Each structure stands twice: as structure tokens, then as C-alpha cells.
Amino acid sequence: MSRPVPVALLGLGGVGRAILSQLLSPPLASRFQLVLIANSRQSLSLPLPNSVPLTPSNYLPILEQHGAPLDVPSIVSVLSTHPDAPGIFIDSTGADTIPAMYPQILSMGVHIVTPNKKGFSGSSELYEAINASAYPNTTAVVLGESTVGAGLPILSTLKDLVATGDEIQRIEGVFSGTLSYIFNEFSKVEGGDVKFSDVVKVAKDKGYTEPDPRDDLSGTDVARKLTILSRLIPSTPLLPEGYASIPTQSLVPPVLADAQSKEEYLDRLTQGDQYFDDLRSEARKEGMVVRYVGVVDVEGGKVEAKLAKYPFDHPFATALKGSDNIISFHTKRYSPRPLIIQGAGAGADVTAMGCTSDLIKIHERLTTRRA
Amino acid sequence: MSRPVPVALLGLGGVGRAILSQLLSPPLASRFQLVLIANSRQSLSLPLPNSVPLTPSNYLPILEQHGAPLDVPSIVSVLSTHPDAPGIFIDSTGADTIPAMYPQILSMGVHIVTPNKKGFSGSSELYEAINASAYPNTTAVVLGESTVGAGLPILSTLKDLVATGDEIQRIEGVFSGTLSYIFNEFSKVEGGDVKFSDVVKVAKDKGYTEPDPRDDLSGTDVARKLTILSRLIPSTPLLPEGYASIPTQSLVPPVLADAQSKEEYLDRLTQGDQYFDDLRSEARKEGMVVRYVGVVDVEGGKVEAKLAKYPFDHPFATALKGSDNIISFHTKRYSPRPLIIQGAGAGADVTAMGCTSDLIKIHERLTTRRA
Q: Which residues are noted in the entry as NADPH-binding (chains A, B) (predicted)?
């Protein structure tokens, strides 16, 4: 068995905590050596001096008591100079600032795994700088499987299709767990007259939405995922400003565009109900349901996030349940019927799994020798 | 860019031809160097002496005219002693004899990629010998993504789930393109009274079945796939005889069990229609359709291939179309709703893609360096 690969984990929110927990558990614990954990303020070098083992339940008080102020360049330096270097830098923050450092981190030979969408869905300048500093242009690998569909094998499948010479014609899917839940409840094949505002409130109460539901309803998160997918396909539009270059339909109803706070927005949400009621009944007359989808139309040269109608027997109407994602790849090989992947596309455990499966892929790449 | 990895391709049937075609085309051609192709009788070393480039349209006459008698050990020796060794041995045969040599091939450091199910679904003795000779126990990698679901990411997803510490509870799916087509046509949500024998004949005429349709209807192919899946899950039954250890329902109707030839079988197929008619109407009374499925029930410790009934709103009833495979993974993380993968699970191009994506994974592993 090879020596464990050194790993530093930055970001200890819900996903970071789940990554930590998977890293400390049996199947992964022997392959990786956690050399450092950090939140936005403090970092903790490992192993602990008193040889107490780190666990998912003790790390927080220990970090708070013994942590040093966060210093990202010195973390990268630890990973690049470790006896078993280069190590892997896990960016589990939601920050813009860390992805801006990816080119520099990679150019020190350190690998990166991240669920953070910012680096891959922002300006094409940053995206190209990241790629220029990464495999196959350098020895450092950067992977972000969980940036789209969490633990679902979406990006790896798209990469395989492209790399083996298939031609992507169209990718179409429900990419937001929150918007999946909202429209699966609001617009059902079997009918129903629940109010849009009531569904959003239930989704918020269940913790399915961001603290400010407008962050989900703006469609920005979907546009970021579409950017990441598009950029993996040769011949798609350049998207110089990343997600901001994608036409994105906002679900904040026009009548509420002037709401000043999330409180005011939620209070006044019923004012938007007529707008969504009309959409739903118009669709129903045509035998359709309403879904919020993302589309990468390679042949048409269009990428967009929008409300769309689907017939009652379409998988987006019948097969989609709860807050699942569903993504269909229409390609030259997968034609006329697409390749479809469906399942939970959000949640700490499955998002962490997307990251730890990336860690394993890097581990395998580092421990397979040519001779 | 690293030097191309040497590759030998054994087996030039439909899938082998498609692998050859993908290997000779742009995205892959620069990563791999094809050093030899062979069918069951002859092999041809490459590049050709007259420096004519090999193409998907000229290889067959050239092989027939200039091929040397097939000698597998010398092929392996070429791959292990090549200046860019070790190379990759692609077994695209359907033979039992080649998989029996995997342990020996791997122990010479040569990697293996294969769509051939025989090595992974036969005796546990051979399976364990293969594993003992492969990564992570040695430096040689063996991958067979396309042995289940062709180009669909079934095995890679299962491996990721297991390796990241998820607990598999149940895998359930329609694993045979042929049986998918037959039952999607025979037992529909919207009803219909087509005869089983007529559907089988159409499937045969369309080329969806093996030359002898009983090879599909026996369920053996499904049992082989279930064996391959089960063996990747810790705590599943041992299956000492591989697929032969799995309870497998045959669809050759009892009344036809004594048919001596495929001709006699097809002639007399209508004698079995009553049997299937009864199954269908019994299911229909309960609001169900009939499907031929494979189940790996980890919690119950059971693996079986059988006819089963599914409610009209189940994905196996509504989402399944044509000859698609659909596989659902019920796990601790993907619960209560499973992770579902669906799409063409057979066909030369997508099966070849499963192989060439394995080739790329090995290429990445060989060209990522620790420093």
C-alpha cells in the first residue's frame, strides 16, 4: 500500500464537515493524511500535539481553542513541501477569494478538489488561467465533480462523452434541488391548485432554500452549473463573463421586483401568485407541466436557464420527485433517447461524496506507476 | 504532452471495430499508439511497414493478407517490453480463454481493458486471481466499465459509492437491452394485447437479440452483470460459481423447454403465449406492468434475475423506453429516492465508449506524476 496522500481541508460548513467525516472514516482514512483543517478565520495543523485523534465531534472546539489565524499561502506551502508532496487542497468554502488563487496553487504542483462553483463559472479569464495551470498542461490536477449535481456523476460522464469522441447535441435538466422541489409540488401531472407562495414557504421552512429564497429563485445557481457544463464542450459559446453571460429567467415575480428585503419579499409573495397560476393553467391546457430547467443547446449555440413546459409523459414530469436533479445528455451516440442521470443533487453527504470521489481519483492517479 | 500509451486490440467484432474506430479518431489518436490488432486467427503488428495508415475501412483486408497467426503470449510480451511500456491489452473477444489469462497478463505489468464479462462473472477463483494480480495489489490496472450497461457509468458509480463509504442497500434494474425492448413492447402502461411470440420475432428481426433468442431469454447475461455488481459490494454473497450461483428465471416457457434448436423454438414460440398472456393480465389487474429485472438485495443477502411487477407510475414502467437499461442504486445516502442511471445499455458504439473511457482513465493515471 502506498503512503497516504496529504490533504488540507478549507471550509467547515455543512459540506466541509461531511467531507471531514468521510475522510476520517474507514474506507478513506488509510488513503489520505489530513494535515490541516481551517474555517474562514482559523486553521489547525494535524496531527494534534497531544496525539488525541481528531473526530467529527471534537474538531470544532479544538480548532477554536488551538487554531492559528488563517494563512492560505502557508497552507499551500505545507502541501507542496510535505515529504509525501504534492498534497491535495480541498476548497470547501463558498468564497470568491480562494478560487482566484487556484492558478497559483496549481502552479506549485498542489492538486485541488472543490465543490465551490466560483472558479469554474466566473470570468473566462480566471477559468483559462486555472486550466493553463492544470493537467494536462501541468502535473497538478483540479477536479470539481460536485459543482454540478453534487455526488451524481454528471461532469465525469460529460468528460467521458467528449473525450471518447461523442458529439454533444443538447444537455437539458433540472439542476436545482430547490427549484425541483418547488415545481414538483406546484405543477403536478395529477393537477392541484396549491399557491406558489405556499410552496416556497414550505420549501423555506423545510430548509430546502437558501436563507433568502430569492438566491434560488434568481436562477443564478443554475446559470453557474450551465457555465461549468458548457465550458467542457468544444464549440459552445465562450461565455466571457461566465454565468453572467447566460440568459437567466428570474422567478422573482415582476410585481415583487421592488421588494427591499427577504422579509418584505416573503410577506408580499402572494402578490406573485396570479403570475404563476396563469403559467400553470396555460401549460395544463396543453397537457404540460411547468419546470425550471437549464439547457445547453450545442447545435443552436444557446445556453439558457428558464421556465419551460413538458408533456405529462416526459421524464421531467413523471420521473422527477422531491428535490431530485435530472440531467439528460442528447448526443450522437445517445440518440434518439438520451443518457439520463437522476437523484439527489444537493445535501451535505452527497456533495461531500462528489469531493471524496475526486480525492480517490487523484489518489489512484498518484499511486499508479508506469513501471 | 506525454508519449502515447501502447495499446493492442484483440477481437474485431462489432465492438472491437468500434473501439478501433474511436482509437484512430482525433480525441484519442494522440494519446494512444495502436501496436497490434488481432482477430481469433490472425494478428497484425503496427505501424504497417509500407507506412500506409490504418483506417476503419482498410484494416480487414490488410489483416487477412499480412496477418501472422495469433499468439497471445507474444502480444503481451510486446506490451510489456515496449519502450513506452507497460501498454494496455484490450480484450474485445467474447472468449473464455483470454480472461483465464488475465492474472498472467497483469502480473507482467500490462494493463487490461475489456467489455468481456467472462473473467469477472465466472468462478470466484478466477475473479480473486485477477484481483490479486491487479491494482492496488500490483501496478497493473484492470477495468471493465462496459461489462455492465455498456457506456453508462454504472460500475464507476458503484465503485465511487462504495469507496467513499456509502452503504449499498439495493441495486435494481433492467440490465438487458433485449429484454427491456421485449417487455416495454409486451407490457405497456396503456395496455395492448400483442403476443409475446410476435414481440420476440420482431426483436430478432431488428437484430436486437442474439442469433438464438434463447441466449437472451435464459437470463444468463443478466446474471453475469449481477455477479459483476455484487462482487464490488462488501458483504454480498460470495457467488463461488459466479453467475451460475445466482437464481435466474428463464423466459423459455416451460412448454418449450424441450425445443431442440432455435428454429424449432421460434416455430413453436406461440405455444408459450398463453403463459405470458396470463402473467400480463394478472399484473394488469393489480395496476402493474411486467419487467425482467436483476436485483442485488444487500440487506436481504439475495441476488436474483427474475420477472417482476411494477406499478404504472414506477420509473421502470413510465421512464423506460426502447431497449434502454435503467439501474437504480438505493443507498444510505441516496434514500428514500435512489440514484438512477438510464440510457442505451447495448450497441457497438456505446460499448466501445465504455472501453475507451477506461483507456483514458488509465492514460490519466499513467501521465499524472507525483512530482
A: 93, 117
Confidence grade of residue A263 (pLDDT, cut at 50, 70, 90): confident
Indicate yes or no: CB of B315 within 8 angstroms of CB of A313: no
Residues B160 and B191 in one domain: yes
A337 & A353 share domain: no
Instruction: Say if residues B42 and B69 touch (Cβ distance below 8 Å).
Output: yes
Which CATH number belongs to the domain containing residue A180 in this structure?
3.30.360.10
Considering only the beta carbons, identify the residue of B151, B164, B321 that sits closest to A360.
B164
Nearest CA among B87, B361, B368, B84 for reference residue A137: B368
Strand partners, A290: A309
Active-site amino acid positions of A? 225
Sheet hosting strand B339-344, strand order edge to edge: A302-311, A288-297, A168-174, A324-331, A339-344, B339-344, B324-331, B168-174, B288-297, B302-311
pTM given for the model: 0.96
pLDDT of residue B371: 46
Single-letter residue type at B30? S
Integer angstrom CA distances of residue A219 from A2, A92, A177, A214, B336? 44, 22, 12, 9, 27
Same domain, B337 and B220: yes
Q: CB of B163 within 8 A of CB of B285? A: no
The predicted-structure confidence for A121-133, as pLDDT tens digits, reads as follows 999 999 999 999 9
Asked if residue A33 has pLDDT above 50, the reply is yes
Grid cell 433517447 in the structure block, residue: A337
The answer to whether the CB atoms of B165 and A322 lie below 8 A apart is no
Name residues 166-225 of chain B within 8 A of A (Cβ): 166
What is the rounded CA–CA span in Å between residue A350 and residue A346? 7
- Rounded to whole angstroms, the Cα distance separating A90 from A248 reads 30
- List the domain range (segments joined by +) for residue B29: 5-148+349-369
Using one digit for the tens of pLDDT, what is the confidence trace for B69-109? 999 999 999 999 999 999 999 999 999 999 999 999 999 99
Active-site residue, from B159, B195, B204, B225: B225
Question: In chain A, which residue's Cα lies nearest the Cα of B20?
Answer: A164
d(CA A350, CA B339): 11
Any CB–CB contact under 8 A between B343 and chain A? yes
Q: Is B13 annotated as a binding residue?
A: yes
Does A251 lie in the same domain as A228? yes
Asked if residue B93 belongs to a known ligand binding site, the reply is yes
Please check whether residue A363 is in contact with residue A127, taking contact to mean a CB–CB distance below 8 angstroms: no
| pLDDT tens-digit map of B18-71 | 999 999 999 999 999 999 999 999 999 999 888 889 999 999 999 999 999 999
Q: Answer yes or no: do B126 and B170 share one domain.
A: no
Across the interface, whether the CB atoms of A350 and B337 are under 8 A apart is answered no
Residue of A86, A152, A349 lying closest to B371 (CB–CB): A86
Q: What is the pLDDT of residue A371?
A: 46
Cα–Cα distance for residue pair B246/A366, rounded to 1 Å:
37
Of A284, A288, A342, the C-alpha closest to A312 is: A288
User: What are the tens digits of pLDDT across the range A303-321?
Assistant: 999 999 999 989 999 888 9
- Residues within 8 A of B (CB atoms), A 254-313 only: 313
Handedness of CA B91, A367, B28, A236 (dihedral sign): positive
User: A-contacting residues of B 309-338, CB under 8 Å?
Assistant: 313, 315, 318-319, 321-322, 324, 329, 333-334, 337-338
Residue A118 has what pLDDT?
96
> From the candidates B32, B80, B310, B370, which should be mutated to test the interface with A, based on the most A CB atoms within 10 A?
B370
Select the residue of A2, A153, A342 nearest B156 (Cβ to Cβ): A153
Whether residue A220 has pLDDT greater than 80: yes
Residues B137, B340: contact at Cβ < 8 Å? no
> Nine-digit cell at B105?
497478463
Rounded to two decimals, the ipTM of the complex is 0.96
Chain A residue nearest residue B88, CA to CA = A370
